[in-house]
Design a protein that fits this description.
The complex is a heterotrimer of chains A (164), B (107) and C (89). Chain A has 164 residues and is mostly helical. Chain A is built from 6 helices and 3 strands; from the N terminus they run ααααβαββα. Chain A has 2 domains: 2-48, no CATH class; 58-162, no CATH class. The mean pLDDT of chain C is 87. The chains are: A mainly alpha (164), B mainly alpha (107), C mainly alpha (89).
Chain lengths: 164, 107, 89
Amino acid sequence: MRHRLLPHPLLTLVLVGIWLLLNNTFAPGHVVLGLILGWAIPMFTVRFWPERVSINRPLLLLRFIAVVLWDIVVANLAVAWLIVGRPQSLRPAFLAVPLVLKSDLAIGLLANTICLTPGTVSAQLSEDRRFLLVHALDAADGDAVIAEIKRRYEQPLKEVFESC
Amino acid sequence: MLEYLLSFLILAGALFTFVGSLGLARLRDFYTRLHGPTKASTLGVGCLLIASALFFSTRSEGISLHEVLVTLFLFITAPISAHLLAKAALHLGLTSLAPPPEDKPRR
Amino acid sequence: MLTVALSIAFVLVGAAVVLSAWRLLRGPSAPDRILALDTLYINAIALLVLLGIHLGSALYFEAALLIAMMGFVGTVALCKYLLRGDIIE
């Protein structure tokens, strides 16, 4: 019963948040309207969301977000420096990162994170979902970059979304 | 004090946006060009939007947070565009400075 | 102070627009041009935000939000076209 009436509690929270931000107010009327929308939209679109998201360790997720935000700033300074410097000395490379993640959401988040952080863009997910092809802007040592991605981003994501 | 912070954010944002486009114009193959706009421009616009949120929150009545929405939206969508562009480029077989992936995983 | 910073920022973002437009016109391949368009709409958002601060009016955010959404959808549709030769399957 609970699953029918409130299929995705997290989605409801996110929708209320977006509604309040969109209207740029915290007036009680908008909170109520947001709650109604946040309840109705997941209920009517439940078929589009087959996967039920569960966050196992919220604190670790917060820590992960902080790490990623910090990395985005550092990465941008690094990339800016590479662009302003000598483009001839760049050593771009394609790297295949082996994945241990299984769920769609976790892989998507990992690909997003990789795109936003130091000099790497995720390019392709292999058919059997075991490798993520990544293009690095300046990789002298490809294996080190792969190890860094696995340790810094994949490990926390696995613990947050897939610890079973 | 606030004015210094605002000016710093605005200058940093504009500088990052510029560097992103500079990378787009200056680098030599498509895959390296992809890095400039997706990272630098996104962070640049993010900085500008945060500056704008600060500016309107301190200036008029009430706090103004809907800029956060645009920032979040950009930070979620920019990697997706980059991923799709890289995929399209691989599909078309564009030449790249890097040695292409040998056992190229098929889509 | 703020006015000076805003003027410098306008010049920098304007230069960014010119560089992206150059890549859009020159770009040897189709993905290059799409990437240049993508950068152009992000630059347009930056310009709108700067204009909003300059004029002290919060009216420009809806426009910025709309440009962000439409630009993203446009980029995805063009990439889909390159990948599949078709947009709606």
